[in-house]
Amino acid sequence: MKDFHYSAAVDQFEKKIYSVLKKYPAETVLLAAVSGGADSTAMLTALSHLLSPNTQLTLNFQLFVLHVDHGIRTAEECRNDSKFVRAFCKKNKINFRIKHFRQGRIAGFAKRKGIGIEAAARIFRYKALRAEAAQLKQCARLSEIICNENILILTAHTKDDLLETTLMRVLRGCGPAGLAAMPAEKREQKIVIVRPLLGMTRADVIEYLQANNISWIEDISNTDEKYLRNRIRGKLVPLLDEAFPFWRSGAAAMAQTQSTAAEFIADEAKKRIVWEINNEDFLFTDAVNFFSQPEIIREEAVFLGIDELLKKSANYRSVKRAVVRKFCAQTGASAVTAADFGAVRVKYEGEKILLSRKRKEFFECGISVKR
Predict the structure, then answer these.
(1) Interacting residues of 3 by C-beta distance below 8 A, sequence separation 6+
(2) pLDDT tens digits, one per residue of 289-324
(3) Are 178 and 266 in contact (CB under 8 A)?
């Protein structure tokens, strides 16, 4: 009975990942982000099984791994994580690369930009993943089979991550786009980011690893309560589970509703408020029309303008909805102030609303909007 239970757990886990990835064409290249933690180790284990010709469910893909050493913990911990991923990939004959950021670089970036170190680490991690994906596309032996979107960046976000992120954004007062459900697939600039574990819980991950007798790395920073996510995971989630056992389905339903709302608002904002391009550093739109629109449309239009202005940027700086709202809440007659969004500045001037990008030497150009 015990063996049957484990076999069923393995089968179910891998079937779910297969069902997510099977729609992509043969010879797709997978670039998996692997930290060595339980989630990414389970994802990598399942992928290595599914890419084996000896399994019933087989994907005809090529697999590459990128491990990012963020340099935000002790040098010894970072080395241990890297060694674990390297050993796992070598044992399973998986192509891998390790990207190291020097100790203190990400922490310094977070301090300069006024954002949390986890948010800064995420910025650097995705930058490294995009750079690695671009390098794979240029690789001579892959050039004939990779075109446009035939490369997927895989991250190991689970259903628990989705719910924790939703709670974080509720507490921070995000708008509909921020509260929208984390998508299983996200397409941006010819790169596709896929989250094949999004339909599974952390408990599913642990069960799968134990069934396969696979070890993983426990990041001690995951228990550090100076991070909001850890406080939510360790304190708020257990409280909600005990007092409101239905909260998970309710939060998931809210996220789906907000996804629909966010999509509608974005479509309306694009139709009602059009940004004209002066040059790559400057956008403008008619002020009378801007202030005649509902406030939520104005807010979304500003975010869309920021996206357009900085779409080619490599790095990021956070912009909170509260800052955008303060500017957009003004009336046409009294809106005489400008607002600083970090790498972008917005200003009401004469008959125009102006969005301008700041000079590159003052910023590590880019933006991460929190809608």
Answers:
(1) none
(2) 999 999 999 999 999 998 888 764 544 446 777 888
(3) no
